[in-house]
Amino acid sequence: MSLVKQINSTMYCIDCHDIGREKRTGCYVLKGNKVTLIETSASPSIPYILKGMKELDIDCHDVEHIIVTHIHLDHAGGAGLLLEHCPNATIYVHPKGARHLEDPSRLIAGARLVYGDSFDELFDPIIAIPKERLKVMEHEEQLRLEDRTLTFYHSPGHANHHFSIHDSLSNGIFTGDTAGVYYRELKNESFTLVLPSTSPNQFSPEAMLQSLSMFEQLNPDFIYFGHFGCHTNPTDVYQQMRYWLPLFVQCGQQAMKKYDDTDDRISETVSLIKQMVTDYLTERGISENHPVFEIIDIDLPVCSMGLIEYLMKNEKIMK
User: Fold this and answer.
1) Which pLDDT belongs to residue 274?
2) How far apart (Å, rounded) are the C-alpha atoms in residues 43 and 124?
3) 92 by DSSP, 3-state: which?
4) H/E/C letters for each residue in 135-166?
5) pLDDT tens digits, one per residue of 233-268
6) What is the DSSP letter of 41?
7) What pLDDT, on the 0 to 100 scale, is given for residue 113?
8) What is the spatial distance between Cα 69 and Cα 155, in angstroms, rounded to a whole number?
9) What gap in Å lies between CA 208 and CA 221, rounded to an integer?
């Protein structure tokens, strides 16, 4: 089975099989005389990326640019390992993320707190990237390729070390996690599902909404999600994010009022959001044994951690 989906005449998406699942995380390939990759996923995904490039008849020596939207390990954890296969490539990263790719010790420690015993299976190895192979991209800075210009926009909300990349050739934007998660398990249904990604520890609903407004002003024709693939109706994405984001926060607020213990608050938030999303999907004819719930069940605990952490931080500020 092919790992590669063609998006247009010069753009492809390699299925990285992150966490062992199809259509979970994608690596975008911009083909030309030199090759640009956007997102690397985690290190266990690198064999899939290499196989996908082979399928596209790409020599690793021709990869010149590797871009990570942010440094969370499911987007950039494999960057160091991939760089070992691409000797002529440079990694492009947000200014607030570069030092953590050069020295990933804090990244590793933070991820171990979130993922616990699953960390090694999901992310190992994480390889430090030499400073000379890192390139920081500032807000609105551009990378000119032979057939297109990539413009970088700092887009916090999911994380402070996040940028999104506008592609002039397709008038599409690579949004990483700022515009949420696009659940492709529902691709055969008459509607789409996009939910916010509110993971720890820099989630900010205010910043996320501001970033969405920025995307809207750029007026792209396509949104290229980190999770997963190309959405052809950006207006639908903005509407869904603006619908779900305040509801996610409200679920966290209800949990905060009900419990004092952090773990209880997180568990309650998971339960409340799960019920809300389940009701939404069953009203649209989706049964509770649909595969989409498998990945929703993976996402919601991490989202709930970020929601409760955000609310607890703001509670302390208000006091």
Assistant:
1) 98
2) 6
3) strand
4) EECCCCCEEECCCCEEEEEECCCCCCCCEEEE
5) 999 999 999 999 999 999 999 999 999 999 999 999
6) -
7) 82
8) 9
9) 20
The span from the CA of 41 to the CA of 17, in Å, is 9
Q: In Å, how far are 75, 180, 219 from 97, measured between CA atoms? A: 12, 20, 27
Residue 37, Cβ density class (10 Å: 0-12 exposed, 13-18 middle, ≥19 buried): buried
Which pLDDT belongs to residue 110? 82
Backbone angles phi, psi at 257, to 5 degrees: -70, -30
* Spatial distance between the Cα atoms of 137 and 66, rounded to a whole number of angstroms: 12
Buried-exposed string 234-269: b where 16+ CB fall within 10 A, e elsewhere: beebbebbeebbebbbebbeebbeebeeeeebbbbb
What pairs with residue 276 in β-bridges? none
Q: Which residues in the chain show pLDDT less than 70? A: 316-319
Six token digits for residue 218:
């750029």
pLDDT of residue 319: 44
Strand arrangement, sheet containing 149-154: 142-144, 149-154, 163-167, 172-176, 222-225, 229-231
> What residue type is assigned to position 60 of the chain?
C
The two three-digit tokens of residue 299, written as one number: 């996402």
Query: What is the predicted pLDDT for the residue at 316?
Result: 61
The Cα 263–Cα 287 span in angstroms is 29
Its sign, for the CA torsion 124, 270, 113, 105, is positive
Contacts of 191 (CB under 8 A, 6+ apart): 284
Residue 211 near residue 157, CB atoms below 8 Å: yes
